[in-house]
Amino acid sequence: MRGAALKIGQMLSIQDESLVPAPILAALDIVRQGADVMPKSQLNQVLDAELGADWSKKLTSFDYEPIAAASIGQVHKATKDGMEVAMKIQYPGVADSIESDIENVKLLLDYTNLIPKGLFLDRAIKVAKVELSRECDYELEAANQKQFRSLLSDAEGFYVPLVVDDLSCKRVLSTEFVSGIPIDKVASLNQETRNYVGRKLLELTLMELFVFRFMQTDPNWSNFLYDEATNTINLIDFGAARDYPKRFVDDYLRMVVACANGERDVVIEMSKRLGFLSGEESEAMLDAHVQAGFIVGLPFSNPGGYDFRSSNITHSISNLGATMLRHRLTPPPDEVYSLHRKLSGAFLACIKIGAVVPCRELLLEIYKDYQFGEDGENQMLSGSIS
Fold it and tell me: pTM for the complete prediction?
């Protein structure tokens, strides 16, 4: 059940982990850690069933000791035609048990009676089922990875590894192996490098949402591997990639700009259009919601580098959490569960590595070329950003 536990934990903590009661986080963590790696015999059975009995003949070598274990599969290193390959192999039965596993985790959460109503557990469960089902489809992930490889082919500082098609299928995904240190380890490098990596992370996040409208939404630090020798961020794991509707992205950009500019009325209007607010909220809820938006907009509010080393964004949002949980009338829009997971992850990564990033300039670069609406009319309900 660890895939289900991980996914629901992500759903419940999209704003801040402090909003989820500690006993719930502890229970979910126990479930997440509860599975062992596949033994060699079982691994061979899975590979024979998925790739055919002659799969090993396509390889020069295959290491049965996994180099990583994730929530729904484990990763092994291999060699094919002189190229190092990473093979992600799904645990048997994971895809078939999504519905029952998530329902079992929900029963656990319901039994504790600790989930605040303002977290809207039923909506989180619904979104979790859809997301986990997509993440179990490695053919879809392979297509996502190929799309990102194409989108970022000319983007300096990023690399998306090749997909090895003849060793990939619905439950096995093989890609070019790439090296590097997980993004959080960049914290031990010099300030110039930390600033560069932080800038590239924010640049990527803004491009994904506002240029591609296609985002890899899992902010796990190990999905971003910094190669110091090439000054490149190697990007892996595209199971959680998804696209976003044009109208949603239009209004979300309007809201981000309004948050950066401190425009309360526009934040409220865009929040209604996006589905964050119903229009019937109390003043206490509106105040907390707008204040949270302004806090998240702080890095984009002034020109020059924003110093994430002294940022207290997460603490400030946490202080508003109780009010929002108590007064919230509607769950977040479905798109936001994945989107805010990625956005908060990007901020947390910049905080972790202590980066100074010109966030407003990055947003301006996106905004000045952005075309709003189907007809491309560049219309804003708020003032411009400069």
Answer: 0.90
